[in-house]
Design goal:
single chain; Nitrilase/N-carbamoyl-D-aminoacid amidohydrolase; six-stranded mixed beta sheet; 2 domains; alpha/beta; 548 residues
Length: 548
């Protein structure tokens, strides 16, 4: 119960006009009760623990504990309270997680984005609070969490999947579930475990239920079953080279300077990547490293359009000839209608550019600027955002023995985009540019996505970043080569090529939509049950009043 404190003293009777009988109005300040304060603390702490479970920290096991604290906060609360506690949970999670969005533009982007996404989480926890009065509520709550993540990953502005629980688990046993149902199934398992833990704590805290074995069985199953399922799923994570092997190279040329203006010296960025490729070619010719079958350059490695700039064309051609292997070049192409495009170009020795892929999932407030005139009212930095044109189809690059599916940077966060790149491929490449985010955790969060995608697709993944972290990842999610931030490097490794598809890719979005459907059904039952209970209480109150 909330208490109240008078913040204005009442008037004395002598001060009142004789003809006035209206009582004095006082302003009242509501103060959270001890129970409410504890729930607020529990929700916020749970969000912080979920953040701490994300890379670069390996404490993946903190995620279910954080979810358990959220469950304790919203248990048997009204939907409005569930929204509030979920909002606090979301702030505790997303404010530190998304810090990188404001590293060079300040809180004008970071705080509103975090607050908005926290509000979307609040919508989910409002629904979760409604179902906590039903039997088997941890299962129903986990389904609603998946439903909320599905919404957050799609709306608004095509959504923001950053922060999905599934991406926090690349160092833990739950990762194997990605091969069965992708990020939705991983997230479901983690959240079910967490809510099961909350239910167990609630039962143990109740003197009536803590000695009831049957009452404890449900929460224990909710905790143990996802863990056992994830362990049992590991044999389904394929690593055999059923399409052969390939020696791959990822070039990290670095950038002249940090910050939003890193690409002002576009020629320098191109020169750096040419230089690193020539250095690798010299090491290959000297027998120090094996010759790569294919080479991946980062996104924005040539912000000079090589189709119209002869100098850029000549430099790239010289580097490709020296390494004598197919090279994927990340370029900004301005010479093709209807506008500028973030493009991956397949460049062959002695032939030049032969194929290209245009990035399909563009980053809002970066590569595009929705409602530019409106957001300009808050910050002139919106005019730094581009007017890029999105591509319309995936592409597979034939590169030596490999058939390479391309997913550029931000695209790796989106389930459907990566899924479209798998058919016909036996290797995935993620050219990326994280230079505008400095030394923040952003690049490690994105690397975790790449690791999850390796397991989900059953493919090795080559990550080439302008400034790091570049990496080579095997199909089980293990990183076998990794660069340092803002350090020129060339990573070379031999990886398995795999043409078989995982159960997750064959099922596509179906596991997620099935969980969403059941989650919405659970919410409908929860609303109905609450209305029924309210009618019963009103009836009991009316009967009691009649007896009095």
């Amino acid at each position: 119960m909330a208490t109240s404190l008078d913040t204005a003293a009442p008037q004395r009777a002598s001060d009142q006009p004789a003809s006035t009988s209206t009582p004095t109005r006082t302003r009242r300040l509501r103060v959270p009760s001890r129970d409410t304060a504890l729930r607020m603390l529990s929700a916020t702490s749970g969000g912080v623990l979920l953040y701490l479970s994300n890379p670069p920290r390996p404490e993946w096991w903190l995620a279910p504990i954080g979810i358990a604290l959220l469950g304790l906060a919203v248990y048997r609360r009204r939907a409005r309270a569930g929204f509030g506690y979920g909002f606090l949970f979301g702030l505790g999670y997303l404010v530190p997680l998304l810090h990188w969005t404001g590293v060079y533009v300040g809180p004008v982007a970071w705080w509103p984005l975090s607050a908005f996404e926290a509000a979307v989480i609040g919508l989910g926890t409002a629904a979760i609070a409604v179902v906590t009065g039903l039997r088997g509520w941890p299962l129903l709550a986990a389904l609603l969490w998946v439903t909320d993540e599905a919404l957050r990953s799609r709306e608004p502005f095509d959504g923001l999947p950053w922060g999905k629980v599934g991406f926090s688990q690349v160092d833990g046993s739950f990762l194997s579930l990605g091969a069965l149902g992708g990020t939705p199934l991983i997230g479901f398992a983690v959240v079910l475990t967490g809510f099961g833990l909350a239910a167990l704590i609630i039962r143990l805290a109740d003197p009536v239920t803590r000695r009831d074995v049957a009452a404890l069985a449900g929460p224990v199953v909710a905790i143990v079953l996802p863990v056992l399922a994830s362990i049992a799923a590991w044999p389904l994570v394929g690593t055999d080279p059923n399409a052969g092997t390939a020696t791959v190279a990822a070039i990290q040329g670095n950038v002249p300077r940090l910050g939003l203006d890193f690409n002002a010296q576009r020629r320098a960025v191109l020169d750096y990547h040419v230089k690193e490729t020539l250095k690798l070619a010299a090491e290959v010719n000297a027998g120090q490293v094996p010759r790569p079958d294919l080479v991946i350059w980062p996104e924005n490695s040539s912000d000079i359009d090589p189709y119209v700039n002869s100098d850029a064309y000549a430099e790239i051609s010289a580097a490709v000839a020296a390494i004598n292997a197919p090279v994927e070049i990340g370029a900004v192409v301005t010479s093709q209608e209807p506008g500028p495009k973030n493009t991956a170009i397949l460049w062959l020795p002695g032939q030049g550019p032969v194929q290209q892929y245009v990035k399909r999932q563009l980053q809002p407030f970066g590569e595009t600027m929705p409602a530019r005139s409106f957001f300009r009212l808050f910050s002139a930095d919106v005019d730094r955002a581009g007017n890029f044109v999105a591509g319309t189809a995936p592409a597979i690059f034939p590169m030596g023995p490999a058939r390479v599916g391309i997913d550029t940077c931000y695209e790796v966060a989106f389930d459907s985009v990566v899924r479209d790149s798998v058919p016909g491929s036996n290797l995935l490449a993620v050219p990326t540019n994280n230079a505008t985010f400095g030394h923040t955790e952003m690049t490690y969060q994105q690397l975790a996505m790449d690791q999850e995608r390796a397991v989900e697709s059953g493919r090795s993944v080559v990550v080439a970043a302008t400034s790091g972290v570049s990496a080579i990842i095997e199909p089980d999610g293990r990183v076998i080569r990794e660069s340092e931030l803002f350090t020129p490097d060339a990573l070379v490794a031999t990886v398995p090529l795999r043409s078989t598809t995982t159960i997750a890719d064959r099922l596509g979005a179906w596991p997620e939509w099935v969980m969403v459907a059941f989650g919405l059904l659970a919410l409908a039952f929860g609303i109905r049950a609450r209305r029924r209970d309210a009618r019963v209480r009103r009836g009991q109150a009316a009967l009691a009043a009649t007896r009095d």
